[in-house]
């Protein structure tokens, strides 16, 4: 099989291209794509544990911890002991983190639109459905 026909190669190349789009849209806001994932988790439900965030983002807890440390240093979040489990850390948005929701959400909308700009609405929706089917069982 030719490398360019390998599904893993095609997906990796597409993911890198999309990642660069998202990175460029988020850069003026001082947010990385990984930080966006954490912020979105917390905008949906503030006060989640590191483990909950890691599970939703399909990342290792150690990877999420590194992202959280950088976010805490930038004043987007704060970490506290979880009152339900003192061994766990609860992640809370700061005012700065909450205030990013509007502009970051718009940047994500823009990036999504750019990612599928060469497709019509039906093709874009079909692509999402096909990609979701690849994730069955994961």
Summary?
The chain is mostly helical and 138 residues long. Helix content is 63%, strand content 11%. The chain is built from 7 helices and 2 strands; from the N terminus they run ααααββααα.
Q: How would you characterize this protein structure?
A:
- This protein has 138 residues and is mainly alpha-helical.
- It has a domain at 17-102: Winged helix-like DNA-binding domain superfamily/Winged helix DNA-binding domain (Arc Repressor Mutant, subunit A, Orthogonal Bundle).
- Helix content is 63%, strand content 11%.
- It contains seven helices and two strands, in the order ααααββααα.
- It has helices at residues 7-26, 33-44, 50-57, 61-73, 95-99, 101-115, 121-134, and strands at 77-82, 85-93.
- It has a two-stranded antiparallel ribbon.
- Helix 1 (7-26) packs across helix 6 (101-115) and helix 3 (50-57) packs across helix 4 (61-73).
- The chain starts with 6 loop residues before the first helix and ends with a helix.
- The model has no long low-confidence stretch (mean pLDDT 94).
């Amino acid at each position: 099989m030719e490398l360019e026909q390998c599904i893993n190669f095609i997906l990796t190349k597409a993911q890198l291209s999309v990642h660069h789009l998202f990175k460029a849209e988020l850069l003026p806001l001082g947010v990385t794509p990984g930080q966006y994932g954490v912020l979105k988790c917390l905008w949906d439900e503030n006060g989640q544990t590191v483990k909950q965030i890691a599970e939703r983002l399909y990342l290792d807890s150690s990877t999420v911890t590194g992202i959280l440390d950088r976010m805490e240093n930038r004043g987007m979040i704060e970490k506290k002991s979880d009152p339900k489990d003192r061994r766990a850390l609860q992640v809370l948005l700061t005012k700065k983190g909450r205030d990013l929701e509007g502009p970051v959400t718009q940047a994500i909308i823009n990036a999504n639109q750019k990612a599928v700009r060469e497709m019509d609405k039906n093709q874009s929706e079909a692509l999402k459905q096909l990609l979701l089917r690849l994730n069955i069982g994961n």
